[in-house]
Model the fold of this input.
Amino acid sequence: MSDYPFLDPQLRSSDSLPVRAAPVNVLDLDAVAAHVDKATKSGRYQGPADPLDYLLYRQAAVSVEGVTYATTAGLLCFGRSPQEIFPNAVVDIGHYRGTEPVSFEVTHLEKNIGGTIFDQLRRMEEYLWRNTHHGMVLAERSFERVEVHEYPLAVIRELGVNMLAHRDYTVIGSTARVMLFRGRIEWVSPGGLPPGVSIENLLDIQKARNAVLLSVLHEAGYVEAFGQGLDTVVSVLKREEMAPPLFRDVGAAFIVSVLGRQLEALETSPYIQLSDAQRTVINIIRMRGEAAFSDIREALPDRGERTVQEDIRLLIEANVIERVGKTRAVRYRLHNGP
Done:
C-alpha cells in the first residue's frame, strides 16, 4: 500500500488522484468561488466557502508532502487550460445528412472542443438543440400551446453529462464523440463500462468511475441524483412515447443511441388534439398566406357558422393563428410571434 493511503487508487476514484504536472495555481480560483457561491445558494453544497479549502474538501485538489496539486476532476472542472495536461479530454461533434458516419455526408465536423467540462457540455447542448427539430401542437381540451421536440432536452443534457462524467480519462488517443445523424443521435464515451457493470445491470448498479466529477456536476445542477442519469433518460423517452435508448459496450467505448421523434409522426402525436376542422382552418391559411372568414367557411360546408367561429377563436387563443384588419376586412394568418 502507498505511504499515503488517501492516494491509493483502490481507496479513491481515479479522478481524485493528484496530477503531478498540475500545481493548484493552474486552477481558476475565481471560477471555484463562483461555483461554491452558486452551489451554496441552491442548497446543493454545505462546506468550506474558501476556494482552496473547497478544492481540498471536495478532492479537486490534494496536498502531498507540502505541495498542493490539482486532481483530474479539479483540472476538468476548474482548470484554465485543461487540455494542456489532458489533450485527449476533448469532445468531437459530427453532424451527418444520412444515417452513417461517412465523409461525403458530413454537414458539420467540430473536433477537439476543449475548455472545462462545463464549457464542453454547454457547446454540445447548444449545437444539438439548434440543429434538431422543434414544433408546437395544441394540448387536449385546454388548447394551450405545447412544445414538441425531436429529442427532449432532458435526454440531450443527461446523455452529454453521462458521456463526460463516466468516460475513462486515462485512455490515450481517444476522444468523446457526439454524432448527429438523420433520425438519431449517438454519444460515444471512451473506455467502455467500468468493471462489474454490464449492459444488463447498468440501470441497477451505481458505480462511479469519476466520483468527484459527479459531485461537482451535482453541485452545479447538471446531475440531479447519483446513479440516475440513464434511468432519467429511459423514463423521459417512455413518457414521451419514444423508442427506448440503445446501449452498447464495445470495450473501447460505451455508446448510447437515441432515435428521434419521427417528424411525420408529429401530426399524429398524442399531444396533438386538433379536430379535423381546425386542421382544415390551419391548412387553408397556410396555403393562402391569409384567409378571410368566407374562405374558411367555404372549406367547411358541413360545419355551422358559429362552430367555425368557435374553431377560429380557440386557434387565436392558442396563438396558432392571429386576426388582422378590422370589420369586413378581417383576415386570418398564422401567428408569427412567440
